[in-house]
Prior knowledge:
With about 60 residues, the chain is mainly α. It is built from three helices and no strands. It has a domain at about 25-60. The protein is about 90% helix and about 0% strand. α2 runs antiparallel to α3.
Amino acid sequence: MDRAQQLGKEKIGTLLLKFSIPAIVGMLVQALYNVVDRIFVGHGVGALGIAGITVIFPVQL
């Protein structure tokens, strides 16, 4: 089925789940990356490194 036909004929709830799951998985992976990054920087550099990550985080997005 063509994607345009899907958007016109399927239920909104089904479409919402179908198209939002990849975005949710991507956001979870990004959050996990940030947690692991802060752990490594915290152990290696310390508080100043975590402060640097906090300042740069909005630029990364």
